[in-house]
């Protein structure tokens, strides 16, 4: 746009334009919608609200609408050429009759102004930090924690949440030894953001491996964990699934502490619920009249599947989903007045972006004995969840395809076991995280783990 | 004379055109940014 | 114009304008209209890279208005009329 270029030739007028743009955008970002509608989206000429896009004049307090061509009239009368769109903050030139949306001088003027300061106070992460590969030394019995943490730290939703500083901005504590969300943020910064080179040692085998000392943020997390729940201090072996549930609950509690929202858990927008929470429909139906008044919908963060006598994941899901007659149940149908055994079925009402499936390998008996089921259960690279969803009779349920992105496995006996996690990283490569040891593995090896927890990420809906 | 009918139609027209113009503006700017940063992009 | 502006002002102050706008946007999103308009715009830009915003809008706007489903239009108009009836009473 030659008109803005003309203005930018003079430093003083350039400064003035940038100041006005930034001020206008700040006002638009921080004004409640009602106020915007009554002032910045109301045409000064025709007084209409939202008569198409409305533009705030950069040089005076005029606001002109598009539909009535009132900004054009203003321009012809006063020679004021530039306007900021009140809805999206974009700059428009009424001589070119086009947006000037691509000028970095305007879009990043604040960044440009503070760049010198930013460049001295921040560092660029080293290339080696690209995939966030960092081993975690076992500090006693911390494998149950480190395997879950590695799964979360390599979850793109969590990384994105952390890097956008969503928690940090609102946190009232801002201390990674006292706040679990801060501890997770600190780990992510250390895993992905360090600028120093980490020593890499390669073994003689074809797979590359790296080992490194534990990041200090892991220590902070252990400290924080001990303060909140002694069971998860890390010096005694615990269940990784329980730790996942505990950790996600902590993220939720941290959100609740700092949020002014009064959301019920079903609609909670915290990072844990928005990534992992789905809804399960437990239907109890009268076989006589199909009355389903006792059907309920409950939220879930993961699904626990029986694996006894099953050889693959679909069999486990089929068993979970199948209709069953409930015997010895004091059921009475209020509609048809019968007391026949009702039909029970679990169906998924809503799927989460990341689906966690627990294969129930540990059986705990009343007499105190615990047994581990070591049977191998095959799991696919891509999982179609269509058949387990609540079918809408009016519309065909589409294929809902999930991609396998993580396998947490338990090796050994129930009392002396070890957790290891295998994760699919950025460019589709599989890595095995075994405390401080990280190694590249082939896909077929990833599919042969003794899976305890499976992490599936939504990929495609047809 | 403004009737309820004409006022309603006018308000709906305003709402729809505002949404359309917002979509087109953003697409236009996206295309400008891409063309500026990557002039030979296909 | 003055009457229309007053009506709009009342709608905004009562919070109903925001409600109608939100519901309309949701309907348009749900019926895929927003995606269609975006696609139409992108296609037009790809075909002719030299189009400026005004030329682009003149091609897209009439088609986009046409593409709004009758049910969405009717529902939105109905809601607006209900609120306007209240305004007239007041």
Report how far the terminal alpha carbons of chain B are from each other: 53 Å
Number of helices of chain C: 5
H/E element string of chain B? H
**Alpha plus pi helix count of chain B:** 1
- Secondary structure: helix percent of chain B: over 70%
Q: Which features characterize this protein?
A:
heterotrimer, A: 462 residues, B: 42 residues, mainly alpha, 1 helix
Fold and architecture overview:
The complex is a heterotrimer of chains A (462), B (42) and C (90). Chain A has 462 residues and is an alpha+beta fold. Chain A has helices at residues 2-8, 11-30, 33-38, 70-78, 104-107, 109-121, 143-153, 156-163, 166-170, 180-193, 216-228, 240-258, 271-276, 313-321, 443-446; strands at residues 54-57, 63-65, 82-85, 91-93, 98-99, 209-210, 278-285, 296-300, 303-306, 324-325, 343-350, 354-360, 362-364, 370-372, 382-384, 400-412, 417-425, 429-434, 437-441, 451-461. The two termini of chain A are 43 Å apart. Chain B starts with a helix and ends in a 5-residue tail after the last helix. Classes of the chains: A alpha+beta (462), B mainly alpha (42), C mainly alpha (90). Chain B binds chain C through residues 2, 4-5, 7-12, 15-17, 19-21, 23-25, 27-28, 31, 35, and chain C through 3-4, 7-8, 11, 20-21, 24-25, 28, 34, 37-38, 41-42, 45, 49, 52-53, 56-57, 60-61, 64-65, 68, 73, 76-77, 80-81, 84-85, 88.
Secondary structure layout plus pairing:
The complex is a heterotrimer of chains A (462), B (42) and C (90).
Chain A: H1 2-8, H2 11-30, H3 33-38, E1 54-57, E2 63-65, H4 70-78, E3 82-85, E4 91-93, E5 98-99, H5 104-107, H6 109-121, H7 143-153, H8 156-163, H9 166-170, H10 180-193, E6 209-210, H11 216-228, H12 240-258, H13 271-276, E7 278-285, E8 296-300, E9 303-306, H14 313-321, E10 324-325, E11 343-350, E12 354-360, E13 362-364, E14 370-372, E15 382-384, E16 400-412, E17 417-425, E18 429-434, E19 437-441, H15 443-446, E20 451-461
Parallel strand pairs in A: 9-12
Antiparallel strand pairs in A: 1-2, 1-3, 3-4, 4-5, 6-19, 7-8, 7-11, 10-11, 12-20, 13-14, 15-16, 16-17, 16-20, 17-18, 18-19
Chain B: H1 4-37
Chain C: H1 2-13, H2 16-30, H3 33-47, H4 53-67, H5 70-89
Helix pairs in contact in C: 2-5, 3-4
Quick overview of this protein structure:
The complex is a heterotrimer of chains A (462), B (42) and C (90). Chain A has 462 residues and is α+β, with helices and mostly antiparallel strands.
């Amino acid at each position: 746009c030659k008109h803005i270029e003309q203005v930018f030739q003079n430093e003083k007028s350039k400064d003035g334009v940038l100041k006005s743009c930034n001020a206008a955008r700040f006002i638009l970002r921080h004004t409640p919608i009602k106020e915007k509608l009554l002032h910045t989206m109301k045409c000064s000429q025709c007084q209409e609200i939202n008569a198409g896009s409305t533009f705030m004049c950069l040089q005076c307090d005029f606001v002109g609408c598009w539909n009535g061509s009132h900004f054009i009239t203003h321009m012809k009368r006063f020679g004021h050429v530039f306007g900021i769109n009140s809805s999206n903050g974009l700059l428009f030139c009424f001589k070119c009759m086009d947006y000037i949306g691509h000028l970095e001088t305007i879009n990043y003027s604040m960044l440009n102004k503070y760049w010198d300061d930013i460049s001295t106070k921040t560092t660029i992460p080293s290339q080696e930090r690209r995939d966030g590969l960092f081993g975690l030394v076992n500090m006693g019995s911390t494998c149950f924690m480190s395997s879950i943490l590695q799964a979360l730290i390599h979850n793109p939703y969590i990384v994105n949440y952390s890097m956008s500083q969503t928690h940090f901005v609102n946190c009232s504590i801002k201390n990674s030894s006292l706040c679990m969300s801060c501890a997770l943020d600190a780990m992510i910064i250390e895993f992905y953001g360090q600028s120093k080179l980490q020593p890499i040692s390669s073994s003689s085998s074809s797979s590359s491996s790296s080992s490194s000392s534990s990041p200090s943020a892991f220590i902070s997390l252990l400290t924080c964990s001990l303060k909140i729940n002694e069971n998860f201090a890390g010096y005694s072996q615990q269940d990784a699934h329980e730790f996942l549930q505990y950790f996600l609950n902590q993220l939720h509690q941290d959100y609740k502490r700092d949020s002014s929202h009064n959301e019920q858990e079903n609609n909670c927008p915290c990072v844990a619920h928005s990534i992992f929470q789905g809804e399960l429909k437990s239907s109890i139906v009268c076989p006589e009249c199909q009355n389903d008044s006792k059907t309920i919908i409950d939220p879930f963060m993961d699904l626990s599947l029986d694996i006894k006598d099953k050889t693959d994941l679909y069999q486990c899901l089929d068993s979970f989903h199948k209709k069953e007659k409930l015997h010895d149940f004091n059921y009475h149908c209020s509609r048809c007045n019968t007391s026949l055994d009702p039909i029970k079925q679990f169906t998924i009402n809503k799927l989460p972006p990341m689906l966690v499936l627990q294969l129930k390998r540990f059986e705990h008996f009343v007499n105190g004995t615990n047994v581990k089921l070591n049977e191998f259960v095959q799991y696919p690279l891509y999982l179609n969840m269509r058949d387990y969803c609540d079918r809408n009779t009016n519309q065909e349920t589409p294929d809902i395809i999930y991609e396998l992105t993580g396998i947490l496995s338990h090796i050994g006996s129930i009392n002396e076991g070890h957790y290891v996690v295998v994760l699919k990283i950025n460019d589709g490569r599989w890595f095995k995280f075994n405390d401080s040891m990280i190694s590249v593995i082939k896909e077929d090896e990833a599919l042969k783990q003794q899976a305890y927890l499976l992490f599936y990420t939504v990929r495609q809906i047809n | 004379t403004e009737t309820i009918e004409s006022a309603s139609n006018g308000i709906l027209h305003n709402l729809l055109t505002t949404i359309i113009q917002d979509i087109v503006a953003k697409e236009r700017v996206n295309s400008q940014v891409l063309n500026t940063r990557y002039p030979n992009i296909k | 114009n003055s009457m229309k502006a007053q009506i709009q002002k009342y709608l905004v102050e009562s919070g109903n304008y925001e409600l109608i706008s939100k519901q309309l946007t949701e309907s348009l999103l749900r019926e895929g209209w927003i995606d269609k308009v975006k696609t139409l715009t992108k296609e037009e830009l790809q075909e002719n890279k030299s189009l400026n915003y005004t030329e682009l809008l003149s091609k897209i706007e009439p088609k986009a208005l046409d593409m709004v489903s009758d049910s969405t239009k009717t529902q939105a108009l109905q809601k607006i009329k209900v609120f306007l009836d209240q305004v007239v009473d007041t």
